Each structure stands twice: as structure tokens, then as C-alpha cells.
Amino acid sequence: MINHLLIAVAVLSLSKLSSQISTKDDPSYIGAVVEYHPITDGDDGQIIAEANVNNYRTIIRTAASYAVDIIVFPEFGVTSIPSVNARGKAFNASDYRAYYRTAASLIPDPKANEIPCDAATLYAQSLKEISCAAREYSMYVVVNHHERVECPSRNCSPDGFLLYNTNVAFDRQGRLIARYRKYNLLEIGTNATREPVVSTFSTDFGVTFGQLVGFDLLKESPAVPMIGNPNVTDLVLSSRLYNEQPFLDSVQRHAAWAYAADVNLLAAAYNSDLKGSGGSGIYAGKRGQLRVYHPGVPSNALVVAEIPKLSGTRAGIPRQGRSSLHVFKQAEVPTISSSSAAVPKSEQNHTHEDLAAYTSLPVDPKQSPHIVTLCDNGLCCEFHVETKFDEDLAKKQDGSVYYRYRFAVFSGVRQFAADQTLGVEVCSIVSCAGDEIDKCGRLYPEGARVVEPTVFLALYVTRRADLGTRSFYSPTTATRELLPINTTDFGFAIGGPESNSLLLAYLSRPTGNVAAFGIYGRRFDWDGQPPTRPSSAGTSVAPSVVVVAMMLLAVTTRCFERY
């Protein structure tokens, strides 16, 4: 009887994280992010927006039962993304603007101190309902909502209005306290501000948040400037980016960025398995993921975590508190149609980076250790790898398969979208569902009998970098379940002078489950240049005692500084 009572108490404490709102004096607060599969069917954008917000109210009510202080919803979650117009044709820019004109809302300047819930007719009903829900459940609510700004004349736009992809934050009284118009656009038919605007808001529990949307996490502004603001320790991200293997899957990207910036990150994703988007989580900087959810199927879920407050040197901050996951049933949040079949992760419409432009070298797990120097366009990466390989397991004739591995190095410019090129530097090991380079970053089909004959006993990846450039470097880690590797299982360090710093990523315990592991760099100063073509860059194998010594020395040097 006593045992049953103890179990009940334990379950209750995990599912209902707190019974009181957090205060400035508390060492933590309760945050939540929403993985949302929105309603998209229909031709009336306003009706669709109001239906999605009706589901938002259900989700916010559920979050209140966990005493959530702040909840973050994904990009496009309210107004969604229609796939075809009334004529059954794919939308163009004009179609999108016409559709969103009715779904979008006027959004007040935060300086106006307005509560849309109290407005009569000025704002869209969808925006008003979110304001009312924030007040009803006494919760900070962050949502993404298209914004319409009427033009005084048609000089600003031929159709007479500006359309913004806008994130807004409401306080516990339903007051609109922050507005961020997305600057780094990938979608068509949407306007952008002339310069990126840093949007922040403060809370009654003593934390100041910065706002980001979608592609911002891969660009320099406004994300990097917020890292340099000592008052902004936590960021919210509303996202609807396609997942891309092997280095830019959603939770992989979120965890890496939060680690390198050493900030708390609350990332909410638009769930669409057919489009290969989704994957939400809460991350506590170098302490790693507090809770992630990457279902790979149509799903609506609430991710809740107790988040430690960050300040100063971060000393004495616990790695994580309690967390919980609430996956909504179809009866609770009815957005998933019967035609939305579950698609296995291996068959989703994920994008895969073409690694043909990389300099790569197969890893022979039977030959250990490997001490390899691999160079591409002037970037040289050092790999020190020790493996254990079970040949008997690999040779079994029972239909089983196993992953191969490659060292992969890239320094140059890559195409990201139709009109976007990004400067990238990569030093990594990647898993491959076959021996060819085009199999790297891919998974074996679901149902395949995958064995793990290769175990990494030690793995060090290092390179030199000039941190005085416009750049951002992070560890990149992923398991074959497309989840980030726990921060207790790897390390990332930097040492030496700024102009010639040594960057090191290393595994701290053996594992056989590695999809990607290394160092991912963004060179913002290269953005916009033509894509780099495949080169015949050279490789070398150098069992250098000096290199190994530098790696081991770097483990004890200073960790990544915020910049």
C-alpha cells in the first residue's frame, strides 16, 4: 500500500510540475513548447486561423495544469500554410497575400500597452482569443501570427498592404508586450523590415527573453547580437524549417546552437511529417536538452520542463529539473486527418545535403586507431578515432545491415534555398547507409535489422579558427534516432588566441550510436556568394603526437565563451 502511494506521488510530481507561478526569487521557472500539426484544409484563411486558435486554447488550458509560466507555439501554427488555392493550383506570391489578407491581423505596437482581448473589432478574432487565453490562464504566451499593415497609399505595395510573419508575446494579463517581424525570410509573398530588429521582453519571474523565428537560427542577425546581451539569457524560437540530414535536423540544430551560445532555448516546431518538418524541445545551454520531442509522425504535443535560470558565470546551475510530455489525442486536438498516414522517418520528405562537394574519407573500423588530417579549401580538420569492430556480427548472413562511417570536411558556400547561400565550415564524422558518399546522412528503411558492429571507444575532432571573423561555431551531434547526443556524453572546448583558436569536440564515453559528430561552423561573411563546387582537395594521414597532445590539452582549456 505504501509503495503504491509513493509511486502515485512520484507520478503526480512529474506530471504536475508545480502548483504556483514562478517568482523572481525562484532558481527556475516552468516553460513549455508546442509541437503542433495545424489545420490546413479550406479556402478561408480567417476560419482556419480561428479553428487553430481554438486548439491553442485547449493546449494552453492543459499547460495551466502543469503551472506553466510561459508557453511557445510554432511558426505558421495559427494561419498555417495552404498547399493549393481555390482553383486547385499551387499558390504563388499573389495567392498567398490574398489568402493571408483575411487571416492576418493588425498587431499593436507593444508601446501602446494594449490588451487585444478587450478590443471591440480592431483585431482579428484569432489574435483576441490568444490574448484572452493568456489572461484566463495567467500565462505568458508566445505565438506566430501573420500581421497586416494597411498602406496609406499604394506606394508601399501594389495590393495596398504590407504582410509580415510576426511573433508576438502576451503577458499574464493578455497584454501584448513584444512584437517581432521576421527578418530572414524563406517564404514568398511576405514583407521584411529594412533591418533586423531585436525583440525582447521581460517577465515577472525575472527572466528576459529574446524572440527568433525560423531561419533566424542560421543567420547572423538578430540571433548573434542577442547572445552578446548579458540581460538576455533565454530565447524563444517559433520554427517551421524543413529538417535536413546529416547536420541540420531540427533538434540537432537547436541543441547545438543553445550549447554554443550557452542560453536557454525554447523551440516550438510546426509538425508536418510529409514535409519533413517538426521536432521541438527545451534546452539549457551547455547543460543540454531538458526535454525534446521528435515524433516523425503527425502529432500534437506539449513539452514541459523546469528550466534553470542562467546568470553570470553559470556556476552552480543544475543541469536540469523535472520535465513532462503530454501527447494530445485526436479527440483533444482534432487536426490530424485520416489521410495523414504515418510516414517512417527513413521515408519522410526530409532534405539531405549533397555531400559531393565535401572532401571525405571512409573510416575502416577494423583499423584502429585512426589519426587523420583531412583538408578542404584551406580548412584542415584533425580526427583521432579509436574503434572496436565485431567482425562476426558484421558478417552474419541473416539479412542484417550496419552503418558505415566517413570523415567529412567542407569549407565553402552551399545552397540552402532557391535564393539563399550560406557560408559553412564542417569537420565531422557521419554515418552512411552504404559505402557511397550519397548514402551518408541517410537511414536504413524502417523495419531493417540494423546491428552495431562498430563502437567508438574514443573520438576527437579538432581544427583551428579565427574567432575574429563573423562566424559562429558549435558542436554538431546526432544519434540515428535523430536526437542530439546528451551533453554528459561529449565535450566541446576552445583554447588559444582568438586569431588562431583551437576548437575541439570529443566523445566522453564509448558509443555505437552516432549519426553525426563534429564541429559545425557558420561563416556569415561568406553568405550570398556563389555555391562552392566539388574540388579535388587533398587528404593526408598523419599520426602526429603533437596533434593528439593538442587535443588532450584543449579538453582542459576554457569552454566556449558567449559572443
CATH superfamily of the largest domain: Carbon-nitrogen hydrolase
Tally of helical segments: 8
Helix content: 10-25%
Helix and strand content put the structural class at alpha+beta
Radius of gyration: 24 Å
SSE arrangement:
Elements: H1 2-15, E1 28-35, H2 45-64, E2 70-72, H3 93-103, H4 125-136, E3 140-150, E4 161-170, E5 176-181, E6 200-202, E7 208-213, H5 223-227, E8 234-239, E9 244-245, H6 250-261, E10 264-269, E11 280-284, E12 289-293, E13 301-308, E14 323-327, E15 351-352, E16 359-362, E17 370-376, E18 379-389, H7 391-394, E19 404-417, E20 420-432, E21 454-465, E22 471-478, E23 490-495, E24 501-507, E25 516-523, E26 539-541, H8 545-555
Parallel strand pairs: 1-2, 2-3, 7-8, 8-10, 9-15
Antiparallel strand pairs: 1-13, 3-4, 4-5, 6-7, 10-11, 11-12, 13-14, 16-19, 17-18, 17-26, 18-21, 19-20, 20-25, 21-24, 22-25, 23-24
Feature tags:
563 residues; alpha+beta; Nitrilase/N-carbamoyl-D-aminoacid amidohydrolase; 2 domains; 7-stranded mixed beta sheet; 6-stranded mixed beta sheet; 26 strands; globular; disordered N terminus; disordered C terminus
Structure description:
This protein is of the alpha+beta class and 563 residues long. The protein folds into 2 domains: 25-345, Carbon-nitrogen hydrolase (Nitrilase/N-carbamoyl-D-aminoacid amidohydrolase); 353-555, no CATH class. 16% of the residues lie in helices and 32% in strands. The protein has 8 helices and 26 strands. The chain has a 7-stranded mixed beta sheet. A 6-stranded mixed beta sheet has the order 6-7-8-10-11-12, covered by helices on one side. The protein is globular. 48% of the residues are buried. The model is unreliable at 1-18 and 537-563 (pLDDT under 50).
